């Protein structure tokens, strides 16, 4: 081989080496795509993602659909981020099937994806960062059964079809209740929809035939699997003069739900840790991009709280209370 060929090969090798070093040193840009952007839950997830971005020295692009039923918009956001050439994507799919194709496209384009909050029926993502939602629903079901002394009638207002996280909570709740032979599930097939307004209307429709002649309810307990469904149900109970007169367990938190818990209008809330979830979603994708091994499934934790827990320091921190 001539001296000239050796020089050329050496130059190419050095150029490739420099390129890899520069690639490793560049500031990463991570797209974080929630199911929606209006609920308090997602605002807290955003805060956690920002925490990770600051700690790890990366940029995040926070963008998602306004409503949690806008599949087409979320697909468009993912496609836009692929076109933009972000380094990685953290996605909370609002449908466990509809987002499979764009995630596969991202993977084929060399953009790794972490799924968070709700699972996706796919093997194209590198990790799933979420609450054990089935366990959370079971915790709620067992606590409601305890309040009822193991007997009575209950209803569950579902969230929306295709939502992996809430679907697992609903299954967990029903699995828990099934172990109490003296508890009857009167209704478990009605859906709240994605806003508090649709949840309010669905709750009114669900409660109307259950009202007795003396203005009470013919059921003893209620379970709702997320913030929107729980708040819609709370409003319907308040407007009907029924708040605090039926046992009620919700999932997730907001200032209104915490207030209802304080006032005894709700018995308990099953809580995720959305800030930790947002933090871990970004941290996991960055670790992968920097060549570190990541777990295939990362559990972000779940717990139940009652009014008595609201003054505990760890609960205050979880809820962002002063």
Number of helices: 11
- What is the level-2 CATH architecture name of the largest domain? 3-Layer(aba) Sandwich
Distance between the termini: 74 Å
Strand order of the largest sheet: 2-1-3-4-5-11
What is the number of strand segments?
12
**Major sheet characteristics:** 6 strands, parallel
Q: What is the rounded Rg?
A: 23 Å
Q: Which stretches of 5+ consecutive residues score pLDDT under 50?
A: 1-23
Assign the CATH class of the largest domain: Alpha Beta
Estimate the mean pLDDT confidence: 91
Strand fraction: 15-25%
For this structure, the quaternary state is single chain
General form: elongated
Amount of helix:
40-55%
**What is the H-and-E element order?**
HEHEHEHEEHEHEHEHEHEHEEH
Summed up:
With 322 residues, the chain is of the alpha/beta class. It has helices spanning 3-25, 40-56, 71-84, 100-108, 133-147, 164-178, 196-207, 227-239, 255-263, 274-289, 313-319, and strands at 29-33, 59-62, 88-91, 113-116, 127-130, 151-158, 182-191, 221-223, 247-251, 268-271, 297-299, 303-305.
Itemize the secondary structure elements and their pairings.
Layout: H1 3-25, E1 29-33, H2 40-56, E2 59-62, H3 71-84, E3 88-91, H4 100-108, E4 113-116, E5 127-130, H5 133-147, E6 151-158, H6 164-178, E7 182-191, H7 196-207, E8 221-223, H8 227-239, E9 247-251, H9 255-263, E10 268-271, H10 274-289, E11 297-299, E12 303-305, H11 313-319
